[in-house]
């Protein structure tokens, strides 16, 4: 047999056998959670700490408590590179795994979230886009399968504007101020724009929207424009490598760093460290505290890292995005725990977990029990409100670490909620959904 | 033995000029096509259909489109992603403006829109050749994607800038949108690709295809013997963009469900170009083989370590996959520069003599 025939044969086998290998290995008495991660590609600097935080918290639950009420958690990572097509492939591959199928899915990308939202009611897998995804889906009457608690991009944008007003001495002082929004030119980056536009009209500040195209390594023109505008405040919705470049550019152009606020995906250690001292004073929004000063971190070290089961490096624990992963895993676990109060301590289906997410009531007492007092804010999710309208913190980079420099800033619910409800009707009708009556759910 | 032509005499022009001149080929293709329509919808899991077969069919159609332009007419193009985006956004605009129009018709109409855009961007090909043309078509790639990102009219003023496939049915069966089953979407994609491939095969066998190949092989000589470069090249751009446009519409409506412009960026253009080069320039079969290689091998490489019980961290696995995949591409190009279609041809020649090669 010649080399070429051999080659042809080997190739044919590889092509057919490839997808076969993706079939399932199921284990009983476990709940399966698919993890769409991106540890490679241009968004890896943001993707790695989140994935590690998530996995470490689940490892902690399994190691310390034996899972949730005796039901162990199982998960499998699938690399998406933040690409929507790979995300869809991963979702299709993982959604049916485990004895009861996927309990819930965290897409970790607004693009992938948009893909999964229409699939969720069909596959009966709730989509948990924590603080990202489609803001309109926060209205649970139209989007029963999508959850974005503790807050959304729209709420975040309004809270940041409230913070700016506080700093400048009142909402009336915003009139005539110049605010620039630098955003990743994708569904994610554009998400905050309508809210900012509404607020600009109401409060009379001058808003300029500047898009940065994927992946954002080249931003020279954008920052020249920023310098020409000479804004009072800069708000950024960036992601991945775009953040580092933007912060470096801002520093090199001599802009005031403490008037430069990133959203919660633009304020990680990996974003500011490359800019060195230039990044000092840069601020970012968040909905949880940075650092390792909480009991949950002590547990993570004791039960996960000291046993050699950590997902990443030990000194990366406590990074802003690592902690975000922990919060995300904690909220998922608490939703499952809530669902168990109704359906019993056994592996649950996505449909049952959906009920748990909708009835999640995370109290201050429960946070203290978990060693997370002060780490994040209590949330109550309802049938109507899948966002919880959580408040936002502002953190500032001092050259070495993030410190919280504000109180919990509530979003402008009066503005945002009305917008969400209008958008939900619009998006819901587009998708052919009908509004459900929350009074009948219980 | 099984593939022997000896004793098969062609007694008419029709039989001599048939697409598949040998009965064995005819049977093989007929059975394969029938199997493609019957087996997967009955036997394949949703993962197979959704993540493997549907993208394979859609990319095949796009690769056929680019192969007509690059493989047959010799015009190197890096604008495939842009033309696919035109198809996708045109389909979205058409089906939201006219919800009652049959969605298959919408696909074809959006193919026509893409063909129109392709004609416009094909005009430079009259003056610019080879790699310079590739750079000129690159402009269309960037311009079109920028346009769809910039002008909110294309996305019906959705604040997120995404287009979403609505539920549309043909003859009472839901074909697109979240409620369409994977089998139905697979069958739609398959039907379109079968018709498209058949049309393309006939096109390249006829006068049009011959004039394309004449232009490809030596354009001055072709001009002297009476092939009009303007019409021929623009026709190649138009028809190629039609295929790409339909494939782009399918990509959003049958595969992704919703998409942003990022789905149509330059990597998509390269991907389709690689399919054509690896599959075989100037071969319809090669378009399918190339699409299969590019779609299936990464999936195989992702799942292979797990299948043999090797649990690597996902990042390492992905990097391993990229390295092996890149290595395989180089390897195949060295071993068989004329693509996988040529390998298939060699296998067929061997089969003719088997089992008595001498």
Topology:
The complex is a heterodimer of chains A (442) and B (358).
Chain A: H1 3-20, E1 30-37, H2 44-65, E2 72-79, H3 84-94, H4 110-123, E3 127-128, E4 146-147, H5 153-168, E5 178-184, H6 187-190, H7 193-203, E6 206-212, H8 220-229, E7 233-237, H9 241-252, E8 260-262, H10 269-272, E9 283-286, H11 295-305, H12 320-343, H13 350-358, E10 361-362, H14 364-369, E11 379-380, E12 393-397, E13 402-404, H15 413-430
Helix pairs in contact in A: 2-11, 2-12, 3-4, 5-7, 12-13
Chain B: H1 13-16, H2 23-43, H3 46-72, H4 80-97, H5 103-122, H6 131-150, E1 163-164, E2 168-170, E3 173-176, H7 182-205, H8 207-217, H9 219-224, H10 229-256, E4 258-259, H11 266-279, H12 284-307, H13 314-335, H14 340-353
Helix pairs in contact in B: 2-7, 3-7, 3-8, 3-10, 3-11, 3-12, 4-5, 4-6, 4-10, 5-10, 7-8, 7-10, 8-10, 11-12, 12-13
């Amino acid at each position: 047999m010649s080399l070429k025939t051999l080659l042809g044969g080997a190739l044919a086998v590889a092509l057919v056998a490839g997808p076969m290998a993706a079939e399932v290995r199921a284990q009983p008495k476990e709940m399966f959670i698919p993890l769409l991660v991106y540890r490679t590609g241009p968004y890896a600097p943001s993707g790695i700490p989140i994935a590690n935080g998530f996995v470490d918290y689940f490892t902690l639950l399994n190691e310390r408590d034996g899972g949730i009420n005796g039901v162990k958690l199982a998960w499998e990572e699938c690399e998406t590179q933040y690409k929507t097509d790979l995300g869809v492939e991963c979702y299709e591959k993982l959604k049916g795994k485990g004895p009861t199928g996927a309990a819930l899915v965290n897409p970790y990308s607004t693009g992938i979230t948009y893909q999964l939202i229409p699939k969720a009611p069909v596959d009966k897998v709730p989509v948990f886009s924590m603080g990202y995804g489609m803001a309109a889906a926060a209205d649970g009457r139209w989007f029963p399968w999508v959850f974005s608690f503790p807050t959304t991009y729209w709420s975040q944008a309004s809270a940041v504007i409230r913070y700016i007003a506080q700093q400048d001495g009142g909402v009336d002082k915003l009139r005539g101020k110049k605010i620039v929004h630098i955003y990743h030119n994708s569904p994610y980056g554009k998400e905050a724009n309508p809210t900012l536009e509404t607020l600009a009209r109401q409060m009379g500040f001058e808003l300029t929207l500047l898009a940065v195209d994927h992946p954002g390594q080249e931003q020279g023109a954008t920052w020249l424009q920023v310098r020409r505008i000479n804004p009072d405040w800069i708000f950024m919705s960036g992601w991945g490598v775009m953040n580092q470049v933007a912060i470096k550019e801002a520093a090199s152009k001599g802009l005031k760093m403490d008037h430069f606020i990133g959203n919660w995906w633009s304020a990680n250690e990996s974003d500011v460290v490359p800019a060195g001292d230039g990044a000092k004073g840069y601020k970012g929004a968040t909905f949880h505290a940075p650092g390792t000063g909480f009991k949950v971190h002590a547990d993570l070290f004791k039960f996960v890292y000291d046993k050699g089961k950590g997902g990443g490096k030990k000194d990366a624990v406590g990074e802003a995005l690592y902690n975000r992963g922990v919060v995300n895993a904690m909220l998922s676990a608490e939703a499952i725990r809530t669902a168990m109060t109704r359906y019993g301590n056994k592996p649950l289906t996505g449909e049952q977990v959906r009920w748990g997410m909708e009835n999640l009531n995370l109290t201050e007492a429960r946070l203290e029990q978990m060693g997370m007092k002060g780490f994040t804010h209590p949330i109550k999710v309802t049938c109507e409100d899948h966002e919880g309208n959580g408040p936002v913190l502002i953190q500032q980079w001092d050259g070495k670490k993030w410190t919280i420099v504000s109180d919990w800033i509530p979003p402008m619910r009066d503005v945002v909620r009305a917008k969400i409800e209008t958008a939900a009707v619009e998006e819901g009708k587009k998708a052919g959904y009908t509004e459900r009556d929350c009074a009948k759910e219980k | 033995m099984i593939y022997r032509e000896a004793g098969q005499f062609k007694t008419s022009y029709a039989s001599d000029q048939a697409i598949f001149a040998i009965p064995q080929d005819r049977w093989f293709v007929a059975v394969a096509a029938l199997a493609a329509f019957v087996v997967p919808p009955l036997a394949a899991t949703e993962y197979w259909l959704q993540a493997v077969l549907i993208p394979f069919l859609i990319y095949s159609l796009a690769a056929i489109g680019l192969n007509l332009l690059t493989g047959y007419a010799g015009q190197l193009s890096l604008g495939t992603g842009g033309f696919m985006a035109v198809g996708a956004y045109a389909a979205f605009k058409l089906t939201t403006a006219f919800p009652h129009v049959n969605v298959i018709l919408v696909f074809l109409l959006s193919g026509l829109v893409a063909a129109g855009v392709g004609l416009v961007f094909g005009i430079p090909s009259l003056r610019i050749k080879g790699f310079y043309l590739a750079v000129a078509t690159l402009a269309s790639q960037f311009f079109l994607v920028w346009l769809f990102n910039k002008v909110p009219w294309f996305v019906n003023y959705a604040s997120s800038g995404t287009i979403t496939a609505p539920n549309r049915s043909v003859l009472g069966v839901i074909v697109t949108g979240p409620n369409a089953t994977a089998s139905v979407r697979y069958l739609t994609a398959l039907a379109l690709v079968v018709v498209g491939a058949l049309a393309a095969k006939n096109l390249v066998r006829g006068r049009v295809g011959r004039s394309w190949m004449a232009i490809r092989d030596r354009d001055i000589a072709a001009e002297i013997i009476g092939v009009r470069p303007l019409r021929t090249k623009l026709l190649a751009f138009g028809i190629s963009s039609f295929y790409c446009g339909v494939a782009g519409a399918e990509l959003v409506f049958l595969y992704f469900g919703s998409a942003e412009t990022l789905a149509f960026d330059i990597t998509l253009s390269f991907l389709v170009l690689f399919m054509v080069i690896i599959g075989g320039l100037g071969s319809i079969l090669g378009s399918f083989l190339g699409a299969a290689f590019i779609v299936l091998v990464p999936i195989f490489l992702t799942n292979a370590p797990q299948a043999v019980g090797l649990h690597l961290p996902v990042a390492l696995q992905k990097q391993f996959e990229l390295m092996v995949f890149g290595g395989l591409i180089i390897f195949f190009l060295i071993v068989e520069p004329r693509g996988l279609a040529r390998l298939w041809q060699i296998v067929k020649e061997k089969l003719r003599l088997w089992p008595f090669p001498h």
